């Protein structure tokens, strides 16, 4: 599996991710102990389809991870299905 630097480099070089690399990014979002970089990367790439994986961190024990996740889902990715959760979090 690629590390986050390699995933980003593939995106820079090709302007998209292969399905294998996309699965690697999902793994990083789901399983990295501190998934901030993976969440930010997915958001910067505009990968709305990764919203469900990012949303798993809305109850993360770390305040920053929760805040980043809801901000990415609602502001940058503009996924309204998470608005109610954002309102509850506020």
Which helices and strands appear, and what pairs or packs with what?
Blueprint: H1 4-14, H2 19-31, H3 36-44, H4 51-55, H5 63-76, H6 83-89
Written overview of the protein:
This protein is 66% helix and 0% strand. With 90 residues, it is mostly helical. The protein has one domain (4-89). The longest helix has 14 residues, at 63-76. The radius of gyration is 13 Å and the shape is globular. The model has no long low-confidence stretch (mean pLDDT 96).
Can you describe this structure in just a few lines?
The chain has 90 residues and is mainly α. It contains six helices and no strands.
Structural class, judged by helices and strands?
A: mainly alpha
- Average pLDDT confidence is 96
Anisotropy-based shape: globular
Number of domains: 1
Strand content: under 5%
Number of strands: 0
List keywords for this structure.
mainly alpha, 6 helices, 90 residues, 66% helix, globular
């Amino acid at each position: 599996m690629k590390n986050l630097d390699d995933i980003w480099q593939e995106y820079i070089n090709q302007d998209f991710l292969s399905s294998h690399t996309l699965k690697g990014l999902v793994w990083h979002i789901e399983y990295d102990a501190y998934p901030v970089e993976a969440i930010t990367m997915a958001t910067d790439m505009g990968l709305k389809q990764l919203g469900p994986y990012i949303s798993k961190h809305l109850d993360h024990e770390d305040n920053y991870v929760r805040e980043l996740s809801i901000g990415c889902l609602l502001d940058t990715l503009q996924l309204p299905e998470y608005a109610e959760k954002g309102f509850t979090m506020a």
